[in-house]
């Protein structure tokens, strides 16, 4: 069984210098530093398995970044033809070694919608012609849909927002807490959500 041939990485002296600069930059993202290290190691030794062993990474990871580098190499060569190649080339290298956007949809509820939901939760239910003393997640979901704050929301989502659970749509703590006298603002650092509904 033949082993696959090691693919030599095309790496110009300027590309190597910029990768070394990225590797030494103290404010650089550590993922970017690791990826620059992979490319430099592959330039010295194109054997994926050897580089993976030496850097303590998987062969799949090393191969992935080698392939990304190879795919971007024509653009690197083009950038080196510019009168001032270093800034453009550094941008291209950083872009080639950056994470690709991950799949996934946008957040279902905007921060504004969540704030409006909390504001409704702070109102007495009687103000909305609800024959209850305290809001339930189901009643609150129904009310915010009726007011067209959101097109649809489940009682479970309402409960998550009101119990102080953090979501992608609302990374900050909720700003109000229900008490006997109505809503009161919470200090920003408290991390508490609405309680006692």
Descriptive account of the structure:
By secondary structure, this protein is mainly alpha-helical. The chain has 2 domains: 13-96, no CATH class; 111-190, no CATH class. It has helices at 13-24, 30-44, 48-55, 59-79, 85-96, 111-122, 137-146, 155-162; strands at residues 176-179, 182-185. A two-stranded antiparallel ribbon has the order 1-2. A hairpin with a 2-residue loop joins strand 1 and strand 2 (182-185). Helix 1 (13-24) packs antiparallel against helix 2 (30-44) and helix 2 crosses helix 4. The longest helix has 21 residues, at 59-79. The radius of gyration is 27 Å and the shape is elongated. It starts with 12 loop residues before the first helix and ends in a 12-residue tail after the last strand. Mean pLDDT is 80; it is low at 165-176 and 185-197.
The overall pLDDT average reads: 80
- Side by side, the strands of the main sheet go 1-2
> Over all CA atoms, what is the radius of gyration?
27 Å
What percentage of the residues does DSSP assign to strands (E)? under 5%
Helical proportion, percent range: 40-55%
Pick out the low-confidence regions: 165-176, 185-197
* First-residue to last-residue Cα separation: 68 Å
Structural class per helix/strand content? mainly alpha
Order of secondary-structure elements: HHHHHHHHEE
Q: Sum up the overall morphology in one term.
A: elongated
């Amino acid at each position: 069984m033949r082993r696959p041939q090691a693919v030599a990485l095309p790496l110009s002296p300027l590309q190597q210098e910029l990768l070394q600069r990225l590797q030494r930059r103290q404010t650089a993202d550590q993922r970017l530093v690791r990826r620059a290290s992979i490319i430099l190691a592959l330039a010295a030794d194109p054997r994926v398995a050897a580089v993976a062993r030496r850097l303590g990474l998987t062969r799949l990871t090393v191969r992935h970044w080698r392939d990304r580098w190879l795919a971007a190499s024509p653009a690197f060569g083009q950038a080196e033809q510019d009168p001032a190649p270093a800034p453009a080339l550094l941008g291209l290298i950083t872009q080639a070694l950056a994470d690709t956007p991950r799949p996934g949809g946008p957040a279902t509820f905007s921060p504004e919608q969540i704030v409006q939901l909390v504001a409704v939760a702070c109102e007495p239910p009687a103000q909305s012609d609800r024959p209850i003393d305290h809001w339930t997640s189901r009643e609150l979901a129904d009310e915010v849909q009726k007011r067209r704050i959101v097109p649809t929301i489940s009682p479970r989502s309402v409960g998550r927002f009101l119990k102080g659970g953090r979501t992608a749509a609302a990374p900050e703590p909720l700003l109000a807490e229900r008490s006997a006298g109505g809503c009161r603002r919470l200090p920003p650092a408290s991390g508490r959500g609405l309680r006692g509904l």
